[in-house]
Input
Amino acid sequence: MSERFKAMETKLVHAGEPEPRLAGAVVAPIFQTANYEFAGEASYHDIRYMRLNNSPNHIALGRKLAAVEGAEAAVVTGSGMAAISTALLTVLGGGDHLLVQDSLYGGTNSLLTVDFPALGIEHDFVDAAEPDSWRARLRPNTRAFYVETITNPTIRVGDLQAVVSFAREHGLTKLIDNTFASPVNLRPIEHGFDLSLHSCTKYLNGHSDIVAGAVVGSSELVGRVTNKLDHLGGCLDTHACFLLNRGMKTLALRVRRQNESALKLARFLEGHRRVERVNYPGLASSTSHERAARLLDGFGGMLSFELSGGVQAAERFQKRVRIAVVAASLGGPETLVTIPATTSHAGLSPAERERAGVPDSLVRISVGIEDADELIEDFRQAME
Output
């Protein structure tokens, strides 16, 4: 069982795997079957069926994710947005209110501002770094508090410990999108969050070849999320489960390399005469540095920056990079460059982007596992 594994690296390789090994296979096979023989299951949610996310591939992943996050249970989903929407719809209903961090991934922002009002679910944006401002936004029908470990794409770390304390005081469910940090850099359940959410498309899989999500937490709460997921249908295909399980085995190696390279790149950019601002919590100049250093085991592989010359300079930079790939998403082995105003946050209005601190000239970088010095030279030539 996973309890005998102590280190993160060991859990990533061995936790959750079938015991005994199936026909002696070192790597568990793909269960490419939609349905299974009926075995007398008493509940609809216990029937073995791919859409119910309970094949041997799904179960192995859930156990591995729970082990590495220090949680009781986990369920995988068809995408990161499936994880976010299902988790929120599990703890919120018509007439409920949500406190939410004011700088969010664009898809989450649109879910809250476009889709949830039609369901009667209200929200208020708050500054996650200003705990004294939260009480004024609290309502009698507030049910949950939602934040991101590291904000997308402003790369800030809020006062997450204060979020936990505030939510406990007021009986709120605490949800956190831990995609940017990954369990290597933070395990939110160990710090008091109720649900940790992931777009497994990114660091957990780490190879830019699947879309998946995950919800991690207590057995009771994850069970409720799973039942909601069964109804909404956001299941993960078993082949994608297989690839995600494979990708997770190298998570710690990849993320620690990306932590190191991102810090080197951020320091280079901060010292470049054509760079106006760098957002990275590993820099002493970051307003998030003290909080991040206290809470995180690593500062992550994501950073963003602004060049002097505005949008035109950012677009020229994108065209001139040679090693980095101009593409959305993040967390893969290749370094990716994107302008969030035209990709992850294109669905927001200019006013919404301004409120979220996402100027049109902002460049976001997902640092891969290439040689850091070679990446720096690529960025240097692109800016020169």
Notes: The mean pLDDT is 95.
